[in-house]
Amino acid sequence: IPGKEMGKKEGAAVFFGEFYSDWIATLQTTLLPNLRRAVEAAAVAPTPLSVQIDALHRHLDLYYSALDRAAASDVSQCLFPAWRNSLERPFLWLGDLHPYLFSNLLRSFLDDGSEEEEEEEEEASSSRRAKIDRIECGLRLMVPALAARARDAQANFPTASAAAAEEELAGVLADANRLRRSVLADILAAATPRQSAAFLQSLAEFLVGFRDEKLLRKL
């Protein structure tokens, strides 16, 4: 993705929309195919798998850093993103995917009884599940708190200055992004390399799927 910095409010939504299109294109045409090939070759060469996991994780982190800068420029464009299509918008929470989606996606791999997990020691498997439980416990605390902050900022808008309200909402969105990044990092730390690869592949396919032209034409 070309190095881009968020502009001022005029045209900021258009600018970030271009950034997001470039970001999705890189995910679809480069990072996702590379991860798929690494998964197929992991039985004989596990090192490339970890390289591609790191590359896709960095790509996600790049997006959230850019989203933070966009929110600082104009938080309204991030809370009501014009660059998101009608398939994506129902999944959005404070500007992006709900963090519960990440933990639910990983849990689907832990609950499917894969051969790899069956071969693991029971203690290691239980420890991994306990880590996911702790991640979800943190979400149950943080998600309502962030939602309440957003509601309070919007409710106080008539009595507070517009600048103060925008600053608080930008802070809420930045904290929501920080939570999403933290959950992603915790998931990758808790999962095995194969589980991490499967998780990131499914997440990438989920994001890319929103841009399916055939599906969008049916709406």
From TrEMBL:
Molecular function terms, GO-annotated: sequence-specific DNA binding
Top-level division of the source organism's lineage: Eukaryota
Occurrences of domain DOG1 (ranges): 13-219
PROSITE patterns given in the database record: DOG1
GO biological process: DNA-templated transcription
PANTHER family documented for this protein: DOG1 DOMAIN-CONTAINING PROTEIN, PROTEIN INAPERTURATE POLLEN1
Protein name from the UniProt record: DOG1 domain-containing protein
Species per Swiss-Prot/TrEMBL record: Genlisea aurea
